[in-house]
């Protein structure tokens, strides 16, 4: 998606350690018009897949998933990183290692909202090593539901996550795939 690539070139900041900061428009301060274009593109890519639910992980994926869900006219479920009093009863759970935070989280989704008949589109802001996607895929398969694919805003194609998830037979559509980056340059696939 050229619009997203151009925005990353213009406003993204590359930091040491392979960190791309897009917090001025994607995952802290939100450019709602850009989200609308992202949602439209995910609908163009997955609109014929019979999606019944969109699944993401808190927190950065929630906004993107919500705007995308408006095009599909389906609910959004977000995997929580901590069990709360509001989620009582049976849950699906999986472990996820965060590249950005350097932590391992137990993510959970209530069994009430993820059903065997669901056809689930996973949406997230970044794909690097693939841990978040693997965890979300596990939640869907544990529910007996179907993963129709994963819509990713930014994929770091130089890291192993995209290849790993695709090797699992999951369709991954990334709107901006980064081939390489350094503190003063970025190259897209």
TrEMBL record:
User: According to its UniProt record, what is one Pfam family this protein matches?
Assistant: Pribosyltran
Supply the alphabetized keyword list.
Answer: Cytoplasm, Glycosyltransferase, Purine salvage, Transferase
Which is one GO molecular function term here? xanthine phosphoribosyltransferase activity
> Enzyme group, top EC level?
transferase
| Major localization listed first in the record, in broad terms | cytoplasm
Q: Does the keyword RNA-binding apply?
A: no
Q: Give me the reactions it catalyses.
A: XMP + diphosphate = xanthine + 5-phospho-alpha-D-ribose 1-diphosphate
Which intervals hold domain Phosphoribosyltransferase?
49-156
Q: In which pathway does it act?
A: Purine metabolism; XMP biosynthesis via salvage pathway; XMP from xanthine: step 1/1
Which InterPro entries did the record assign? PRTase-like (IPR029057), PRTase_dom (IPR000836), Pur/Pyrimidine_PRTase (IPR050118), Xanthine_PRibTrfase (IPR010079)
Q: Which Gene3D superfamilies match?
A: 3.40.50.2020
User: Where does the source fall among the domains of life?
Assistant: Bacteria
Provide the residue positions that the database annotates as binding xanthine. Answer: 20, 27, 156
Q: Where in the cell is it found?
A: Cytoplasm
Q: What is its EC number?
A: 2.4.2.22
Q: Where does 5-phospho-alpha-D-ribose 1-diphosphate bind?
A: 128-132
Purpose of the protein: Converts the preformed base xanthine, a product of nucleic acid breakdown, to xanthosine 5'-monophosphate (XMP), so it can be reused for RNA or DNA synthesis.
Describe, as the record does, how this protein assembles with itself and its partners.
Homodimer.
Give the matching NCBIfam families: PRK09219.1 (NF006671), XPRTase (TIGR01744)
In terms of HAMAP family, this protein maps to: XPRTase (MF_01184)
Q: Which family does it belong to?
A: Belongs to the purine/pyrimidine phosphoribosyltransferase family. Xpt subfamily.
Protein name (record): Xanthine phosphoribosyltransferase
Q: Which gene encodes it?
A: xpt
């Amino acid at each position: 998606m050229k619009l997203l690539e151009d925005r990353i070139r213009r406003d993204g900041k590359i930091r040491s350690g392979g960190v791309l900061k897009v917090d001025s428009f994607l995952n802290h301060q939100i450019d709602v018009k850009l989200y609308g274009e992202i949602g439209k593109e995910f609908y163009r890519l997955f609109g014929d897949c019979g999606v019944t639910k969109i699944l993401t992980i808190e927190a950065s994926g929630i906004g993107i998933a919500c705007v995308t869900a408006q095009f599909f006219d389906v609910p959004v479920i977000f995997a929580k990183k901590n069990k709360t009093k509001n989620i009582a009863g049976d849950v699906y759970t999986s472990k996820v290692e965060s590249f950005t935070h350097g932590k391992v989280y137990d993510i959970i989704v209530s069994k009430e909202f993820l059903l065997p008949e669901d056809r689930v589109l996973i949406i997230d802001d970044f794909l690097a090593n693939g841990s978040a996607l693997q965890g979300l895929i596990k939640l869907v398969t544990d529910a007996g539901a179907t993963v129709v694919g994963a819509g990713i805003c930014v994929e770091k194609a130089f890291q192993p996550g995209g290849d790993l998830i695709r090797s699992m037979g999951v369709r991954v559509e990334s709107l901006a795939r980064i081939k390489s980056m350094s503190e003063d340059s970025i190259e897209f696939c």
